[in-house]
Amino acid sequence: MAKGTGFISTLQSALASAFGVQSDKNRARDFSEGRPAHFIIAGIIGTALFILVLVLVVKLVLSLAG
After folding, report:
1. Distance (Å, rounded) from C-alpha 53 to C-alpha 33?
2. What is the pLDDT of residue 1?
3. Cβ contact 35:63 at 8 Å
4. b/e for 35-66, b at 16 or more Cβ within 10 A?
5. Which of 17, 21, 35, 53 is most buried by a 10 A CB count?
6. DSSP state of 66
7. Is residue 3 very low, low, confident or very high in pLDDT (cuts 50, 70, 90)?
8. How confident is the model at residue 60 (pLDDT cuts 50, 70, 90)?
9. What is the pLDDT of residues 18-52, one digit of tens each?
10. Distance (Å, rounded) from C-alpha 52 to C-alpha 56?
11. 57 versus 13: which is more confidently predicted?
């Protein structure tokens, strides 16, 4: 397996691109060597974590509000 095509590397690329700091070199590598299933799974995991954090923040704010 070539460097940069593993699932951990895909998660790192997805996180970097979500924050808008993905380099052109890594983006080109992802499109040429990446596996679509890895990016789909990373997107689902990222979305689920984002929703979980939002729910937890709302619960915290509501509990502090009284």
Report:
1. 31
2. 43
3. no
4. eeebbeebeeeeeeeeeeeeeeeeeeeeeeee
5. 17
6. -
7. low
8. very high
9. 888 888 888 888 888 888 888 888 889 889 999 99
10. 6
11. 57
Burial class (CB in 10 A: 0-12, 13-18, 19+), 22: middle
- Alpha carbon of 11 to those of 26, 53, 62, 64: distances in Å? 12, 18, 32, 34
For residue 4, give every residue at least 6 positions away whose Cβ sits within 8 Å of its Cβ, in sequence order, or none.
26, 29, 30, 33
- Helix axes of 7-18 and 24-33: crossing angle, nearest 10 degrees: 140
Give me the phi and psi of 49, to 5 degrees please. Answer: -65, -40
